[in-house]
Amino acid sequence: MNKRLFSFVAGECGEWSIRSIQTIVGESLPTSKRLTIENGDFSGKCDWALRGVTSNERYVTKAEKTALVSKQEGLGRKASNYAALIPIRKTDAWWSLTQEERRDIFEEQSRHTDIGQKFLPNIARKLHHCRDLASVEPFDFITWFEYSSEDETMFDELVQSLREGIEWQYVEREIDIRLVKE
């Protein structure tokens, strides 16, 4: 089993209750009641399932990574009763850029890492890459965020700030799924 592979499975059961599914751009996902996160592949009955793998940090320098690690906290904190699952697919134009060009847009122009650091440690996150899988997936990235209900306004500020960056001109599909742990 690939320990870096995760399946985000929507259906009738799961530890997270889906509060809303908002389509930001592109095609939506079907509505569903609950979500569970499975380590590994999922092939059972569900409303929908998204898969991604954790990987090495990309687009960050050593100094940026050190700064992030010094401030961020892990997932699964007791106070983190809210979550957001945000799958994104970028345009072909994005993927035709070199790694260096994408880094320039991601950090130098959009300030993605700098923006994210402003909201640490309140908001924890884990990025999953979908393009690294052997099968064609509907999204390129899946980001899982956890935070307390008191920090929801802060989370809204984070995603709004990121969406205002030049990087988001390359997003062709994005869904914002909000959840609560009951």
Please describe what this structure looks like:
It is a single chain. The longest helix is centred in the C-terminal third of the chain and has 12 residues, at 152-163. The chain is of the alpha+beta class. The protein contains five helices and eight strands. 24% of the residues lie in helices and 34% in strands. The radius of gyration is 16 Å and the shape is globular. Strands 4-1-3-2-8-5-7-6 form an eight-stranded antiparallel sheet.
Rg result:
16 Å
Average pLDDT confidence is 94
Number of helices: 5
Distance between the termini: 29 Å
Report low-confidence residues grouped into runs of 5 or more: none
Which range does the strand content fall in? Answer: 25-35%
**Structural class designation:** alpha+beta
Coarse morphology? globular
Q: Strand order, biggest sheet?
A: 4-1-3-2-8-5-7-6
**Amount of helix:** 10-25%
Question: Would you count the extended β strands for me?
Answer: 8
Order of helices and strands: EEEEHEHHHEEHE
Largest sheet: 8 strands, antiparallel
Summarize the structure.
The chain is α+β, with helices and mostly antiparallel strands and 182 residues long. Helix content is 24%, strand content 34%. It contains five helices and eight strands.
Write the layout of secondary structure elements.
Blueprint: E1 5-11, E2 16-25, E3 34-39, E4 48-53, H1 62-71, E5 82-90, H2 92-96, H3 99-109, H4 112-117, E6 124-129, E7 141-147, H5 152-163, E8 171-181
Antiparallel strand pairs: 1-3, 1-4, 2-3, 2-8, 5-7, 5-8, 6-7
